[in-house]
Design a protein that fits this description.
The protein has 147 residues and is α+β, with helices and mostly antiparallel strands. The chain has a domain of 102 residues. It contains 4 helices and 8 strands, in the order αββαββαββββα. A two-stranded antiparallel sheet has the order 1-2. A two-stranded antiparallel sheet has the order 3-4. A two-stranded antiparallel sheet has the order 5-8. A hairpin with a 2-residue loop joins β6 and β7.
């Protein structure tokens, strides 16, 4: 395996681990996520079901490493923004009866809770991976020359 491919594969592994740790830290490396307005007893921030965390996939290309997710709400959490909720009906249960209730459309501002992207800590991890691979390659070359 050539050096560039080895570096890209190691970058994918190490940075994927760091991005996954952001969910445990409830922060984007050192930047804490803003708290939620309403307490949800089902789970912590961005971890009610863990579906978003599990959906993140890494692809190693010829010259790049790319992370993606199939979850449509990932972008609004990662970048923040306005969320629009369409008017809809909701079924509620009262006294053993199901009542259909009309809900008006509304919007709200989702704060940025970044879990993946560029950060100085990410660059440090990348530098360490590159240095480690370059040192190994140099040691392998020295061994081959001595033989």
């Amino acid at each position: 395996m050539d050096l560039k491919k080895k570096i890209l594969k190691d970058l994918a592994i190490d940075l994927s681990d760091e991005f996954d740790k952001n969910f445990q830290r409830k922060a984007f490396f050192t930047r804490k996520w803003p708290p939620r307005k309403h307490i949800n007893r089902k789970g912590t921030l961005l971890m009610v079901t863990g579906k978003l965390r599990r959906s993140i996939r890494c692809t190693v290309g010829n010259d790049s490493v790319t992370w993606e997710t199939s979850e449509p709400y990932a972008a609004v959490h990662n970048y923040g923004g306005i969320v629009y909720v369409k008017p809809h009906h909701r079924t509620i249960h009262r006294n053993g009866k199901a009542i259909r209730q009309q809900v008006k459309g509304y919007s709200y501002k989702m704060p940025r809770r970044q879990f993946i992207g560029d950060h100085p800590e990410m660059r440090k991890v990348a530098d360490n991976v590159i240095q480690r691979n370059l040192q190994r390659a140099a040691q392998d070359l020295i061994r081959k020359l001595k033989q």
